[in-house]
Every structure is written in structure tokens, then in C-alpha cells.
Specification:
273 residues; Serine Threonine Protein Phosphatase 5, Tetratricopeptide repeat; 71% helix; mainly alpha; 0% strand; elongated
């Protein structure tokens, strides 16, 4: 009788213990596998609050746990934005490229191309550049050239996109910046009396980056270099060209029009309802 009672007690304890373990597992599973909509809404709240790092976590969870869900594609679009606003330009560029590869016919594909070009070069937005006033034209501009090329591709593909006006503004800025970089090198050569190399750089700007704010500066470098080398005829021709076009070169501004990144990019491009 006693043995039977003890067995019943052990059995009861085992059942209770199993129930507690299963309950705990179910609770953990519910925590780990929350509904897709909850992750998405959480991402929206975090982005609106400027918590882009947290938004990335939420959007990545949608991709990982619900790769074929209702919000999967939208999460991929918004990951581009979240990475960009979090200062992760390489991640934003990679996310844009991935989205283009996976969803070439998506309604928001123009946004992905725009962001791909924009995220290639945003060094001018960094705190150090704004505070210290670093001359970007004297730094490595390979990223600026990539951005120029990618935004040009965007404009070719989507001339009627809502982002086209901003891409045009950015291209003007990049064109002036790249031209400035070439002429910074030309100035370096002039100081070292390497006039042929300076002429090569200045000619590159005039021939390949027309209508930039640096055109007059390029002509002046050509003029001084021709004079130093004793190329009188070329010097006089360049001087005449400067005089003829001086009014056209009135504004040497290298500033792009100011804009709000949030107003351009939008927190929810093509947001799911």
C-alpha cells in the first residue's frame, strides 16, 4: 500500500514538472516567434523615435522568421533606409543591391536604385566634416565617382521618379566636388612646376565635367601653365576664352541645395497597410 502511494506521488510530481517545462517552452517560443505584424509595428515606432539600431533588429527579425510573410519585402525596403539613417552606408548600399537583385519589378525599385547611389558617398554629412570644415576635394573621391555613376544610372532608368529632383541636385554637387578634386591635384602639380600634369588635370575637368562650378578655375590653371611653359598662342586663346565666358562663371558655389534627409527618403516608402 505504501509503495503504491509513493508511486502515485512520484507520478504526480513528474506530471507537474513536465507541465512547468512545457509551459516554459511555450512561453519562450511565443516570445521568440511573435507575430510578424508586431515586429513591423515595433520597427515603425523605433524609426519614428530615431532608434534606427533597434529598428534594424526588428526588420531583420521579419526577414529571418517570416521570409515569405506579408511584410518581408517591405522590411527589406525599410532596412535600406534604417541602415542609411544609422550611418551604416556600406550596409545600406548592400541592402539596396540585394533588394534590386531579388525584386527587380517591385513598385519601389526606384527607391532602391536611388538609395544605392546616395549611400555610395555621404562623407560630407559626417560630423567631422561639418565641424572641422575638411575640404572634401582634397580627399579620396572614389566614392563620389561611384555615387555619381549610380545616380546617373538611376536617372536614366527612372526619369519620372519622385526622387529624380533630389538625384539631380546631388549629381550637381558631386560633379562640382569631383571637378574640385581634379583641380586640387592640378594645383599640387603647379606648385611643383609639373605644368604638363597640371594641364592634363585641368583639361580633364573641362572636357569630361562640363558646366561644373570649377570650369573657370580649370581655365585659369590652363592659362598659367601655358604661360609658364611659353605656349604663347595657347595662353592667349585660353585668356580669350576666360574673357568670353566670365559672366557664365559668375557663381562658383560648390554647395548643394539643403534638404531634409527624412523628407526625401521617407520612413515608409510604399508602406504595407
Amino acid at each position: 500500500m505504501k509503495k503504491k502511494t509513493v508511486s502515485i506521488i512520484y507520478l504526480s510530481i513528474s506530471i507537474i514538472a513536465s507541465s512547468v517545462v512545457l509551459s516554459g517552452c511555450n512561453s519562450d517560443q511565443q516570445e521568440l516567434e511573435r507575430p510578424e505584424k508586431m515586429y513591423y509595428d515595433q520597427a515603425q515606432r523605433r524609426m519614428k523615435g530615431g532608434n534606427y539600431f533597434g529598428a534594424i533588429d526588428s526588420l531583420t527579425a521579419i526577414e529571418t522568421q517570416y521570409p515569405f510573410g506579408k511584410y518581408a519585402e517591405q522590411a527589406q525596403v525599410e532596412l535600406i533606409y534604417a541602415h542609411f539613417m544609422n550611418g551604416e552606408n556600406d550596409a545600406a548600399h548592400s541592402s539596396a543591391e540585394r533588394f534590386i537583385r531579388l525584386h527587380p519589378r517591385h513598385p519601389n525599385i526606384d527607391y532602391a536604385y536611388f538609395m544605392k547611389g546616395l549611400s555610395s558617398f555621404t562623407a560630407d554629412k559626417s560630423i567631422m566634416v561639418r565641424v572641422v570644415g575638411t575640404d572634401l576635394s582634397k580627399r579620396d573621391l572614389s566614392g563620389a565617382k561611384d555615387s555619381f555613376s549610380e545616380l546617373t544610372e538611376f536617372l536614366t532608368r527612372f526619369p519620372d521618379s519622385q526622387y529624380t529632383p533630389y538625384a539631380n541636385q546631388r549629381i550637381i554637387y558631386l560633379r562640382n566636388l569631383i571637378a574640385g578634386g581634379e583641380l586640387a591635384a592640378a594645383d599640387y602639380y603647379v606648385k611643383r612646376k609639373a605644368y604638363v600634369a597640371a594641364i592634363r588635370r585641368a583639361n580633364y575637368v573641362i572636357e569630361n565635367i562640363p558646366n561644373s562650378s570649377e570650369s573657370l578655375r580649370a581655365l585659369k590653371i590652363l592659362s598659367s601653365s601655358y604661360q609658364a611653359l611659353g605656349y604663347t598662342e595657347l595662353y592667349e586663346d585660353t585668356q580669350a576664352l576666360i574673357a568670353l565666358n566670365k559672366s557664365r562663371f559668375g557663381d562658383d558655389s560648390n554647395e548643394e541645395s539643403s534638404w531634409s534627409w527624412k523628407s526625401i527618403l521617407g520612413i515608409n516608402p510604399g508602406s504595407s497597410s
